[in-house]
TrEMBL record:
InterPro entries: DoxX, DoxX-like_oxidoreductase. It is found in: Cell membrane. It comes from Paenibacillus sophorae. The keyword Membrane applies. GO terms for cellular component: plasma membrane. Belongs to the DoxX family. This is DoxX family protein. The chain crosses the membrane at residues 44-65, 72-91, 103-122.
Amino acid sequence: MKNTVTILMRVVLGVLFLAHGVSKLQMGLDNVAGWFDSIGLPGFLAYVVAGIELVGGIMLILGLLTRYVSVVLVIVLLGAVFTAKLSAGLLGNGQSAGYELDLTYILIALYLAVAGSSGLSLDRVLFRKSEQN
């Protein structure tokens, strides 16, 4: 049962990050870069974050390098909380989103960083990881 839940957490988190990356592409990365500039971040980070979300999401779905990808995603999420969302508060301020969802994603990614991919994953196939990780 634990392996099933871990697989579900990994795949769902991967789908969510993939969706966020696709969303940034649909908005136009130049627009996202402009928003990054407007909050005091270098615009090029929009491209970096979108790439991490797209590639990281796909890698989580596949269960490839799950622990490493999860750590990178935690870093991205902490960056989002401290640069864009903290001032809006936990639940947001009516004008921008809060960071409650980011905390949930962080906890799931931290769990995956510690637990690994478990069960159905490329990590297990390629690196012969046991389900006992």
